[in-house]
Amino acid sequence: MDEASVAVIVDARGIVTGWSSGARLLTGYPAEEAVGRAVRSFLAEETPSGAVPVPSGPVMLSHRDGHHVPARLTVRILLGAGGTPTGHLITAESPDEARISLAARAFEQASLAISVVDTDQRYLLLNDTAGRLLGEPKEDLVGRSCLEPVDDDEYNRGLGRQLRRVAETGESLHYEIHNRAPSQSRAHAWNMEMWPVTAPSGEFVGTALAAYDSTASHRARRRLALLNEAATAIGTTLDVVRTAEELVRVLVPAVSDFAAVDLLDWVLDADEPLPRADSGVMLRRVAHASTTGGGPEAVVRLGQTDFYPPYSPPARALRERRAVLAHVGEPDFDRWMVERGAVALATRIHSLLAVPLRARGTTLGVAVAVRNVHPEGYADDDAALAEELASRAAVCVDNARRFARERATALALQHSLLPQDLPGQAAVEVAHRYLPSASAAGIGGDWFDVIPLAGSRVALVVGDVVGHGIPSTATMGRLCTAVRTLADVDLPPDELLTHLDDLVTHLAAGDRVDVAELGSTCQYAVYDPVSRMLTVASAGHPAPALVLPDGTCRLIRVNAGPPLGVGGLPFEATEIRLPEGSVVALYTDGLIGDRDRDIDQATDELCRALSVRADSLESLCDGVLKDVLPSEPGDDVALLLARTRALGAGQVVTTDVPPDPEEVAAARVWAGERLAAWGLDEIAFITELVVSELVTNAIRYGVPPIELRLIRDRTLICEVSDASSTSPHLRRAHAFDEGGRGLLLVAQLTQRWGSRQTDRGKTIWAEQPLPA
After folding, report:
1. Residue 4 exposed, middle or buried by CB count within 10 Å (0-12, 13-18, 19+)
2. 460 pairs with which residues across the strands?
3. Tell me: the pLDDT tens digits for 550-574?
4. Which residue from 330, 300, 304 is spatially nearest to 316, judged by alpha carbons?
5. Strand, helix or coil at 707?
């Protein structure tokens, strides 16, 4: 027997009849001591008896000097001339040989692609997995360059460079590639480990490579990275079209060569008709992008609509509410591509993925991803990724749609509440601007108004309700209406704000909400063109600016007072006499308030902008907004400019009336003379009747002193003032009553009449239209 091998021959009884020198070296027993002994006596441990003398497999042998020797036995039957068993041949492998044999089998059977190349990068050894991936028998690959069977791309050229680096430095390296193996149809991710192989002498003989297919984890990482990118890149604004554009930018080129977002028309408009995907659907293209310049794959232009037949992938995605994959060769897909025309065919679209955009149970549209440059078609994992991206984008689109709808509603409501055409009056010339906020917070509650008052006076109002959106706009409407009602009573500015403050407190209690939710700032100013006196009261509002006729501008020092709804604190009015031609600027804090701006600096900018000479108040309004507003204001802005006028001495006449009934006739004569001087004889008779009734009431029921004043403005105004604070009222006189018909007669003869409280008592007034 070969001395290098361990072989033992036993007869049918298990007695040793042959003993090789390899057996002697393994066990220490010479042949003369071994032959004739039972072979089981050489085992160091008991084993079950059976048909064979010793079992095949790993065993522990007893060495002659007493220690144990591990070995792997193989037992084969020996047959005689007649085919009957005559004994057994037992071979054994030493531990080193067993390990070498096991390692060889592990190398061949490994799921990793393992190979060894020489210093010239030629294959020396490959396992079965490596041969299968390269698509050729491993025996045919030995001796050939490792770069020959694979594609000549950057990844594989980098592999050659890394192999040379291992050979030059003797260091192990890690290399990751993502490409297609010759036997595969899709690109896979591979993690490669490379290490030098040396001979027992230490000489470098080659480089070993082990490649692990990490496609699953690679795609999971890529999917997670793309979803993280989408979380920050999609929905940065509350704009439907912008959100759709952000989605296609995420899809191209990471997922597709071309991507488009088509929405149902109702998403962009106010109505919400249900799509009929069973009979096709009409969609509007709002965004698309391509890896190729100009987007040659686009059949539909931005802003256009297109009809999708029921068998098309987008219509199916809407109808089935899931992602739909389509590839060249499928009858419906090929039919649809033909119908799309030469553009779709020329771009060689081979795979398409349509995903519905659904949020909160509502279908908004569809996202379409196309591959025509990328060689791989879409698979199920691509559909799962696209569905996640689409679901995130759909929520952002729906948020933008809801915001746009609420914004449009708030704007419409606010537009209906704000004055459109300011009433004609002679006290001031006005110009105004209102800019709704474009921020995500929504439309605010800024408002303004110009209210004509008795005696040719005018009230200027600005206010700012806290919060944004429809609730803020609704509160603004309630306050605006309340201010007009209180102004009609002709309350002084400080008293009006006091009543308005009480109203806000009662509204909060009635609505069971915090006062802060209904709180508001407000500024109310009254200008009298006869006295040229401006009276201003403020509830937590920025001070108005005053531009004098010489162009100098300053803020009017006003006691701001608390915002409306705080309660318990007084409001104070400030009076200032203005030269004719002065400009008063009332505004909301959106004009000067911004978290990135200093309030004092913004106020200085406002004063400089108001000081600029302008052709008209309209031009001045535009100039102020241009110079003072930031590029993207974060709040609503209301600006009201009023240039004051004055009624000269030729338009206002006054006389004192003694408290004697006989003076009524003298007052009537005085009024007739004044009207004759003004050329208003046509209305002298009615005016004399009104003067007679008002003066008579003042003498009978009032308190001296009594004053009669006529004002010729756009109407003729007759005013009678006395020191009594008792307000007059209409009453129905009975048939035999001697009095009680005076005010009723005044109401019938004039355009309107009323009374107002003054510091010295009250004033009853009546207005008549001037003759044509």
Report:
1. exposed
2. 450, 525
3. 999 999 999 888 888 877 788 999 9
4. 330
5. strand
Cβ–Cβ under 8 Å, residues 493 and 573: yes
* Residue 108 DSSP SS3: helix
Tokens 């952000």 identify what position? 246
CA angle (734, 736, 742) in 5-degree steps: 60
Instruction: Write down the pTM of the prediction.
Output: 0.61
Instruction: Report which of residues 151 and 78 the model is more confident about.
Output: 78
Average pLDDT for residues 509-530, to the nearest whole number? 77
Give buried/exposed letters for 104-115 (b at 16+ CB in 10 A, else e): eeebeeeebbbb
Distance CA 633, CA 438 (A): 8
Residue found by looking up tokens 């005016």 in the block? 687
Confidence band, pLDDT 50/70/90 cuts, at residue 689: very high
Q: Are 9 and 78 in contact (CB under 8 A)?
A: yes
Helix (H) or strand (E) holding 415: helix 380-417
Per-residue pLDDT reduced to its tens digit, 84-120: 888 989 988 766 665 666 677 778 888 888 989 888 8
Calculate the alpha carbon distances from 277 to 314, 319, 325, 425 in Å: 9, 5, 17, 59
Residues counted in the chain: 772
CA distance 219 to 187: 11
- Beta bridge pairs of residue 76: 89
Distance CA 685, CA 173 (A): 113
Q: Which amino acid appears at position 91 of this protein? A: T
Residue 245 CA to residue 441 CA, distance in Å, equals: 22
Tell me the C-alpha distance between 584 and 570, whole Å: 24
Element (H, E) at 306: strand 305-308
Which among 41, 3, 39, 53 has a CA at the least distance from the CA of 23? 3
Sheet holding 573-577, edge to edge: 444-452, 458-468, 520-528, 533-539, 573-577
Beta strand pairing call for 188-198 and 173-179: antiparallel
DSSP state, 210? Answer: E
| 133 CB-near residues (< 8 Å, 6+ apart) | 113, 181, 182, 183, 184, 211
Hey, what amino acid is at 621? C
User: Looking at residue 255, what DSSP letter applies?
Assistant: T
- Of 224-233, 503-512, 675-684, 744-753, the least confident: 503-512
DSSP state of 72: E
Q: What is the pLDDT of residues 3-49, one digit of tens each?
A: 457 899 999 888 999 999 888 988 899 999 999 999 999 998 887 77
Cβ contacts of 310 within 8 Å, gap of 6 or more: 277, 278, 279, 280, 316, 319
Side-chain-side CA neighbours of residue 606 (13 Å): 28
Residue type at 55?
P
Distance CA 614, CA 610 (A): 9
Q: Which of 100-104, 271-275, 317-321, 408-412 has the lowest mean pLDDT?
A: 271-275
- Residue 57 is predicted with a pLDDT of 83
321 pLDDT tier (thresholds 50, 70, 90): very high
Residue whose tokens read 């519905």: 356
C-alpha distance from residue 1 to each of 52, 79, 81, 676 (Å): 22, 19, 21, 155
Q: Tell me what percent of the residues of the chain surpass a pLDDT of 90.
A: 36
Q: Do 607 and 542 touch, CB atoms closer than 8 A?
A: no
- Top-confidence residue, 473 or 504: 504
